Amino acid sequence: MKKLALISIPLTLFLLALSSYLALAVAPTESTMGDVQRIFYYHVPSGWVAGLCFTINFLASIYYLWSRSPASDAVAAASAEVGVVFGAVLLITGPLWARPVWGIWWTWDARLTTTLILWLIYVSYLVLRRFAAGGQTQVLAAAFAIFGFADVPIVYFSIRWFRTQHPAPVIGGGPDSGLAPPILHVFLTNLALFTVLGMIYLVLRYKLQMQEQALESAHAQAALKGVA
Amino acid sequence: MNSITFLKAAYTIAWLVYLGYLGRILLRLRRVEEEIKEVAVSSSSPAAENIRPGVQQRA
Q: Closest-CA residue in chain A for B47?
């Protein structure tokens, strides 16, 4: 545990410090929105990692239903929780960016609404795992996760299908989309840094999940011994 | 409030959430490891002695 803490704490601090330095000191000031646009360098990578984690959760859940492997269930549980944390940052930084730029904290537009629903789906998934009784919790959670994932492509395509308040995609969004090279470089670097950060959390959370499974087994064996 | 306040708030909250979550995982890991050791020590059966962290046992 101490070894894990000695590695993960400095690494997390380094990743957060470097991404903040790039966003706040290296990236140029955007001409229309000014400095508040720098929220973009945390907002979008957080959303990217959340989407990545929900995709991992989806794949692990399918594999769990096929194999009943405890490791795949642990991957599914870990990825859902990490995804919810990154999704929370996405949902917090969004309104903090929207308020000075749009003049409102929130609006029920397609992207915002589907993202909130997605986050609530995975919060429900974690609640189900935490409180469901009986031996079929993992199977129920896996089935829930597979259906819940249907919202991920809807969130991704929502700004292409519906032109509401949220801006159109700035990358791969058509001939008029795109970022200036200095902004693009910082954005892609932060995307990579956040991906590494997400994977660190995922590995740690997976290890915790496996430990909790081992503890449950230890208690079960102790109880059996008590009965015998 | 000017826009810099929103920028500072966004970065502060993001740092707090990410560091807080890391701290929570590490604390939970420590607690579970300690509990596994306690269960293994309190039970003298061969099955309990074989309990290793990260290994799913059959109940």
A: A221
